[in-house]
Specification:
The chain is an alpha+beta fold. It contains 15 helices and 19 strands. The protein has helices at residues 3-11, 30-36, 40-43, 48-51, 54-61, 112-134, 152-158, 162-165, 176-190, 236-285, 294-324, 338-348, 350-356, 375-391, 450-460; strands at 15-20, 25-28, 74-80, 86-98, 101-110, 138-143, 146-150, 198-204, 210-222, 225-234, 328-330, 333-337, 359-364, 370-374, 398-406, 409-416, 464-470, 474-482, 492-494. A hairpin with a 5-residue loop joins β8 and β9.
Length: 495
């Protein structure tokens, strides 16, 4: 070996060695010696098979036989170091003459890191493959508008085999009525626009059936190129459940209307004979056709009182039935003195307040004298609220009616220091047939329609009502309605 070649050969950073036709090493640079752990003298006393593990000898055997007729210019194998450890390498072979004899120059590349990366990649692919195939989700990968991957659960759902869908345009499997929408979403995603990751569509199965699905898309890299992964959820049962709920809702609403209409009709039928009973009992009580003894007087009086009470209940049922039946209510708007209406209601309720020694106070904070509303319904709202306050306030209690202007709305509060309402009952207090005092021993008449009617009548005026209460300390019912009517032209409000 000439001096120049030896200098170049020894200074190259890669691992090199040269062996002859018998497989004997005839030259090696220092890098090779250092990597294998042999001195140069030791290595030159050895043959290629001495550093090649038995499992890899066949890979390199043909390279130093058959007169160096190289079929492959490179091969992956492993070399065994002096300490017995193995290093994965790649040999690249170049035929040459060395000292006038045929020889092979072998460039040795350590591929340990490459092997490690490959192993990790294979392991990751196995993990991903396991997740994709063993998980519960149906998964597809789309790249360049083509289906690049579908898992087994997806094929089970659609009936197509993997071969039937792979490399096919994904849009071919979308229901015609969704094709334009899905293509637009896909184009927007490709262009980098901010689009939703979740949307519903329909895919066509092998038998032609449309399957409603929800897609959850995400951007991924597939085979070193951008792609989309879609997790596909079959929402057939979900759609059916929604349809059943909607059907049940429609049926329930129809049944509720029928019930309300029945109550309204029945209430009318009951009211006619009941008025006769009350009228005739009042005539008897007035003794216009002769004197009654004490017992007869008491019985007739009981008939009259019970009849009036029953008529009040029927009227309440009629009111709530009318409202619940969603009939058009003609609000007769007029301008009236609000203080006069409050005084009138208090006067009507005087027998109750007098009997229980309850004082009623009125406070008009903003000196509001005029209200514009349906006077009769407004009076009914006040009557029910003040009557409830009296009913649930013990003897000697206090009831306040506070009028004010809040945010250009007429606000009226009815405050009592009665028994109060538990917190868990507040959200249900305005429901029909809900009794305020169900948790106490019943001491008061009523069927729980008053507050429901109040709420509906307040809402008729475009207002709202709420309650604040604490058990043992009393309640405050407050409602607000616009200072001016919402529909001044017709005065009609449809519930």
């Amino acid at each position: 070996m000439n001096k120049c070649f030896e200098t170049i050969f020894s200074s190259i950073n890669n691992d090199y060695f040269i062996y002859n036709i018998d497989g004997n090493f005839v030259e090696a640079n220092q890098n090779t010696c250092d990597r294998l752990g042999f001195s140069k003298n030791e290595l030159l006393q050895m043959k290629v098979p001495d550093i090649t593990p038995p499992d890899f000898i066949e890979k390199v055997h043909h390279q130093f036989t058959d007169k160096f007729n190289l079929e492959n210019r490179s091969v992956e194998t492993a070399v065994r170091c002096k300490d017995g450890s193995l290093i994965p390498v790649e040999f690249e072979f170049i035929t040459m003459e060395y000292n006038g004899n045929p020889a092979i120059l072998t460039i040795v590349k350590d591929v340990t890191k490459r092997k490690q990366k490959l192993k990790k990649l294979i392991e990751n692919e196995k993990i991903y493959s396991t997740l994709a195939e063993k998980g519960n989700d149906r998964i597809v990968i789309i790249q360049d508008y083509l289906l690049k991957f579908v898992n087994n659960k997806m094929t089970c759902m659609t009936g197509f085999s993997k071969d039937e869908v792979n490399e096919k345009p994904f849009i071919d499997f979308i229901s015609p009525k969704y094709k334009e929408f899905v293509l637009e979403m896909h184009k927007n995603r490709l262009s980098g626009k901010d689009v939703q990751n979740y949307y519903e569509t329909e895919i066509i199965s092998k038998n032609g059936a449309a399957i409603p699905v929800e897609l959850n898309l995400s951007n991924i890299e597939y085979e070193n190129r951008p792609a989309f992964m879609a997790i596909v959820r079959d929402i057939t049962e979900h759609k059916k459940a929604i349809e059943l709920l909607n059907k049940a809702k429609i049926e329930a609403e129809a049944a509720n209307r029928a019930k309300s209409e029945f109550l309204a009709t029945t209430s009318h039928e009951l009211r006619t004979p009941l008025n006769s009973i009350i009228g005739f009992s009042q005539i008897l009580d007035a003794e216009k056709f002769g004197k009654l003894n004490k017992k007869q007087k008491r019985y007739v009086n009981n008939i009259c009182k019970s009849g009036v009470h029953l008529l009040q209940i029927i009227n309440s049922i009629l009111d709530i039935a009318r409202i619940e039946a969603s009939k058009v209510v003609n609000l007769q708007y007029s301008s009236f003195d609000i203080n006069s209406v409050i005084d009138e209601v208090i006067s009507i309720l005087y027998p109750l307040t007098s009997k229980k020694s309850i004082n009623i106070y009125v406070e008009n904070k903003n000196n509001i004298y005029t209200a514009i509303a349906d006077k009769q319904i407004f009076k009914q709202i006040l009557y029910n609220l003040i009557n409830n306050a009296i009913k649930f306030t013990d003897e000697g209690g206090i009831v306040k009616v506070i009028v004010s202007n809040v945010d250009s709305m007429l606000q009226v509060s009815v405050v009592d220091n009665g028994i109060g309402i538990p917190e868990e009952e507040l959200e249900n207090i305005f429901l029909p047939f809900k009794q305020i005092e169900h948790y106490y021993k019943r001491r008061h008449d009523g069927i729980g329609l008053g507050l429901s009617i109040v709420k509906k009548n307040v809402e008729l005026h475009g207002g709202k009502i709420w309650v604040e209460s604490e058990v043992g300390k009393g309640s405050t019912f407050t409602f607000r309605i616009p200072m001016r009517p919402q529909s001044s032209k017709s005065g009609l409000h449809n519930i």
